[in-house]
Amino acid sequence: MKRTHYLLLSLLALALAACAFVWLNREALHIAAGSVSQSLCAAAFVSQVDPDRIFEEEQRPLMSGIAWAVRYTLDRSRREVRSSALILFRARSVYREGLGCTPALGDDPIPTTASTDERPAPDAYGPQLNTPSDPALRKALDLAFAEPDPTHPRLTKAVVVLHDGHLIAERYASGYGPETPIWVHSVTKSVTQALIGILVQQGRLRLDQPAPIAAWASSTDPRHAVTVDQLLRMDSGLPFDETEGPVSPSTHMWFREADTAAYAARIPLAHAPGTAWGYSNLGYALLSKLVGHAAGNGGAEQFAHRELFAPLGMHHSLIETDASGTLLGSGFMYASARDLARFGQLYLDDGVVDGKRILPQGWGAYSRSQTLNTGYGAGFWTNLVNTGSVPVWDAPWGMPQLPKDMFYARGAFGQYVIIVPSEHLVVVRLGLSVQGGGTGIGDATAAIIAALRAKRELAEN
Asked: What's the burial of 442, exposed, middle or buried (CB within 10 Å: 0-12/13-18/19+)?
């Protein structure tokens, strides 16, 4: 009897411990399921790469020991991915042509939204890879794709180099190519910044105006004074919302809220506007809503294609939306490396493409102008601060081995669009460096600059 009694007590203790684990980690389990369904849906239907490979390279390392509890199913006929964590916590993402994948809460249908009419066009650089003949440039690409530490794989997927507006070098991992759209994470913020710039150029927004957000309209609301410029610079006073762990205001917003901007608009300020810097996905969700307001009935994604992607020839790019139709402009863009190189070139050319100005004059200089005492500009990171580190993340602000005028778009897991005005250079690096250890793209870019300078000196002599 005693043995049976102890066994029952042990089983009860285990059951209580399991219940406590689930209760304490319920938000993380919801987010894990949402992240898996969204990522693998886009892998299958947007990037058209192996979703099982993406789960192993990207999602499993992020699971913090709960990968065993995660399951997913891909339904190609319905064009959706369903996932679960411990069976109880479920998520679904649905693909829509031209719009990418949308997180769905429950089994409710995703609202029908007009997709872009434009079919992916062949890349203007042509189907052939541009493999450099210069040994020094080839060595720089080798550096970008090197795997010096097997315990921290870099998993570089694409590197593209533009110099003086010309494609001079590129390389891709197996299964990827010039037309493969890749998840660029927070590089999306810099593209959202460009969409805001287009609205400023068109006279539909002003940087110094209070952000026209309905929930902040009351003059007694401390958020009423927050300007568009402060949202772009991340000194709006909204809290630092992305931490190292799986649960944060940003992950909750992306995977647990049907209307991301409405959620962001409910968050109180942590500081007075203009007094403190804090990394802000919330701010870029609100900026995305402003783009949607300007787009009107045509849809924000169509606005992005018509006003930015089409003029630049970015035919393999899209920004996904939430279930309400608002762009996920804080981090859910898919783009080919060549498309992103064209985007970087737009900033080198100060917002002019094919002789037409689409961004305000001086927008490139504005983008890299310093915010407070940080290494952040307005929608881009800068190379103005090479001491100290980004708060919370303990990550370096810039790349001291590169010229001071360099500025760059950066996304999680090693997504970079590096722009160096003094060298007339754009370098794009995309990959899945999920397990830390860095990407080596700073050193690779320094090697590219050295190779170009050596070639120029040889030609001059």
From this structure: buried
Q: For the sheet with 182-183, list strands across it.
A: 182-183, 333-335, 317-319
Residue type, 113: T
What tens digit of pLDDT does each residue of 46-78 get? 999 999 999 999 999 988 778 888 999 999 999
Place of tokens 């040889």: 458
What's the pLDDT tens digit per position in 347-362? 999 999 999 999 999 9
Q: Stretch 289-310: mean pLDDT, rounded?
A: 90
Contact predicate 205/199, CB 8 Å:
yes
Residues of the chain with CATH 3.40.710.10: 135-460
* Domain over 135-460 is classified CATH 3.40.710.10: yes
List the 89-96 sheet strands across, edge first: 70-75, 80-85, 89-96, 100-104
Sequence-ordered alpha helix ranges (H) in 354-440: 363-367
Cβ count near 350 (within 10 Å): 17
pLDDT tens per residue across span 381-412? 999 998 889 988 888 999 999 999 999 999 99
